[in-house]
Fold each of these.
Amino acid sequence: MNKKNFAPTLFPLNRDMQKTWFVTYYDKAGRKLKKYGRLNHLQTLEERLIEAERLIQEITAPDRIEKERKIGLAGQMSDLLEYKRPFMRKKGYQSYSSVLKGFARWYISEASLKKEVAQGDYIRYLHEIGLHKNTIRGKTMVLKGLVNQLIKKGLQTTNPFEEEPLQKKVKAQSKLPFTANQVTRLKSYMLEHDSQLWDAVEFLYYLYLRPNELRQLKIEDIMFEEWKVYLNGSVAKDADVIYKAIPVPMRSHILKYASYPANYYIFSEGGKPGATMLSRDHISKRHKKIMTALNFGSRYSFYSWVHTGVKNAAMSNIPIKQLQLQKGHSDLKMFNEYLKDLRVDDCEQLIADFPSI
């Protein structure tokens, strides 16, 4: 292969601003590779040519570029993180490192275009590329914390992440519970087209199980004499041993499982218990197909059956503490917030029985 073929080349050759820009080159093994950098985020020809030159230098002189990476704010933050690494949990370090690498790539590119990077520029850049507010908030907290530690050490005087106020975390919106009419429609359809799926629905509705817990349940986990379902630490999401009480309306429906071998999975292939565990999203996907067939929107999902069970039980005046234990929430305050999301605090009694003046 001719040596000049290894030289990086900027495309498009005619520098058309309407086309995708990239630098193509060959590695030592002869493989053709591409680098995009921030080429397609820049608006002027001059800025793109400067960024292209930086990419070409990164390809042809990686040692020098690596040395430059260690200069300035991004380098100081990187050094600080490596110093802290022995005292951090593995997942924590990986999370911080990922955030810092994203900032470092932007910072080095931005610093090559202008002498001084203005405060708040990176946060504004994250908004421009369309990241969710919660994602931006998380990245900001990590970077702000690292720079504050540099300030305490006297290595920085200002924090570029102080100017932009942290966005208030946007609360995730729960899937809606089903109404009584919707339950009737879904039950009728499932019993006709997929009766095993309706069995799965009952486990979510009465026991508040997560779909991934459901698929791992075995016959031996049903304690018929005590009318409880046992979830060991490897099955339960939070690695705790959990016992779920089986309500009376469900008991007659699960007696059919008593005749199967204890080591069989309750939900397996062929619509009945068996030795094979279903794949992680198998049941959820079957439920989604039925939802699509019946024209349900995206605000509903397989997990909506848990919300439906909790809401119906709460509206039937079952003590909140008992529902909290069955759901598995660690404290009552957290569970009360969950009930608010389900609109259980709709004040029906207040509306109906409020005394007239």
Amino acid sequence: MITLKNEYRNKGIDYFTDEYYEFISKLQGYKGSGRKKESYYVLSENFREKGKALYECLALELVHQLHCQLKCEYCYVALDSKSQSNKPVPANDIIRLVDQAAEVDPATGKTLFGQIAFIGGEPTLHPHLPDIMQYTLDNGLMPLLITNGVKLADIDFARKVCLPGSVIVTHLPYLDAEGDKELDQLTKFPGYSEILKQAIRNIVEIKKEWNALGEDFELVGDFVINKQTEKYAFTVFKYCRNNNITPFFERMRVSDDKRNLHLVPEDRTLKELLFQIFEYDKEHFPHLVSSENANEEELLLKKIEYLITPAFANSCTMSQTGIHVKYNQNGFGEALSCVGQLISHGNTQSNTLQEIVRKKQDSRIFMEQKDFIAGPCASCELYDSVGCEGGCRGNANTAFSCGRASDPECLFIRKECRTDRTIMAPDNCNHCPAENTAACGIKAQTV
């Protein structure tokens, strides 16, 4: 049940904005349904049988994180990483991990993971990607391809990866002549906007072909909201809604090297955009916003949900129920809770996925996150109600080098608090249950 925690304000621990308290006061006594771990999904649940897997998503960087045709200014990968290696991960290594992810737990009858996200760098640069995606499907798992779309401008290649039962996540053009020029500049790839438009045309055509055969895959449009892109966002969002593209409009994550800090959008502008998107959905796609008999509290919760990170109405629970396998200057195989975390749970070159998951469980700060999260997120009444659950854990760790810290991108935390380490990541490492706290920046600073 949602209650107003006035004791925090009375004690002078006033983390939150006036708008937060206004919303909470309107929701007092309301019993929301919350979210349960069994129903967590990344990006979409359209093609996944609920309850099929023990854990959500295994993300695999098929090529080095810098191996990409684009050099986007707003990319969260530090561009000064040591290695420029473009060697793909051997296909046999990926097949081995797919096999392990598809292993069935005899006690529950569930596979270890339900989805495998193929990422990079740019995963389409892996020469065996189409075969790997098909193998994933053949093993009963859902492949998610996270791509910049460049190679999908070739319809023959697009047909090889746009497979029924998969999810294709690609960037979106800005649908504006001036914006197209800006997109080419932002990505440092001349002609990218036209290539991307052709890629989307190809995907839509292939989708129609499969639909005619009674099959389908999902197309997700990824759009990064920042100071340079926010002016195109609403037009692009409407394009998605009217062309059967699932919009994934994510707020820009600050890069590991902090080079894109100047692109972080202003709170007011961002909030206006997200509420504009909410109102559009409420008017034109009401089934996405509420049930037919929704009350005021339910509508308000949904409106609030559009403000959460990392993307509107799309909370991310990767840190709790997923594994992200890196390919960086240290090679391929380091297993983290998500792309933005530091604490390693093992390495796929020497550990099985079962061993890696067990080590993640032992760390507890991810699997039992609610008990160990620190800062304002620990006392937020919206933690469960809108599926936020601490916001983007990658944002939090990038900002404070602490897996327990609160998300500095939360629009409900007062701006002056968001950069204050003593508030967002309290120094209590001695109580941290992570086995490998030496990997934590705060631990290193306090030892």
Amino acid sequence: MSRLTVDLRRRLREALACARFALLSGRVDATVRADELGAMRFLVALDDPAPLHDYVAEQLGALLGRNGADLFETLRAFLETDGHHATIAERCHVQKSTVKYRLARIAEILHRPLSDPEVRFELHLAVALSDVLTVLAFTP
């Protein structure tokens, strides 16, 4: 296979991934470039998403399997805000006491302490992978 063919294949995969990301944004004028995908851009090269599915299921499966959309979004907000309860409450449109309850419930469901930095890293990665798999139409 020529170098040109390999490069075209890679660029096509990147273009398709970017188009899917742009569609996910819901904006008509959205444009996503491959270099904007950041650390997750390596995923566009995968032919078999099964290991990614497995990782997401291992980390979040118990939460995703319980119709836990509110809990999942609370977890996402927790991870993105470094656990700042007031910001989580604002993002999720709930009271801070509800945030505390949900976080305790998430830790209970996942059987993992959210105070552990390694756990937070693994969960953050799993949430990001879940988003990428969904965008790329490989719904976990």
Amino acid sequence: MKRALAQNEEIIVIMDDRDGRDAVRAIRADITLMGTRSFIRWMEEDFGIAAAATAWQTVRLATAGTADDGEEDDPVHIRPA
């Protein structure tokens, strides 16, 4: 991981626990954090991955509807290179 960071590679952490994201952010400000729903939306909208269009519904079914929908404005922290 240290080698990757030394080469200016980005680290993305997908974590649905908001308190957990806050804790990670407090330790390492240079890590990109997002929830699962935001990641899926990112894959569909920004990268055009068609299968992502139904991925969130699949997650909701697999978790018997308990997956956290998060907030619509769930922060996705992407810093420019």
